[in-house]
Amino acid sequence: MADNARAKRLADLIREVVAQKLQRGIKDPRLGSQVTITDTRVTGDLREATVFYTVYGDDEDRAAAAAGLESAKGVLRSAVGAAAGVKFTPTLSFVADALPDTAKTIEDLLDKARASDAKVREVSAGASFAGDADPYKKPDSDDEADGAVEPAETDGDSPA
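The structure corresponding to this sequence follows.
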């Protein structure tokens, strides 16, 4: 087993090599400049690497990019092997990164919440309190003026 630092260094190297190779070395029109490598993870034994990517475009472009990455997998693995200099070059698997879709969903939900807050603020602009402006109980003014405390009732059996 390799240590985590070595796996992290290898993952960073794989990410850089694959990104550079996609930009300069592969002539597949399905890949082009639409594919962005976002992250890479390597298993502890350095045998398998998962490369996360995003594609700028619609679902058709994403499917074409996935097919292009699968067809270029051998060339990319050879480039990684030449750059890494390790005994066993990790096998590459490509996974579409769901982070941009998740971020868009969160942004849509936040926009909806902002609109709802603005609507509530608009409705409550001319509203008044249902009761008094100060809802907390205050002691009666005549109790404070006397300053006397009433003694508690006791029965004769208990010691005082």
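Helices lie at 4-25, 59-71, 73-84, 99-123, 141-146.
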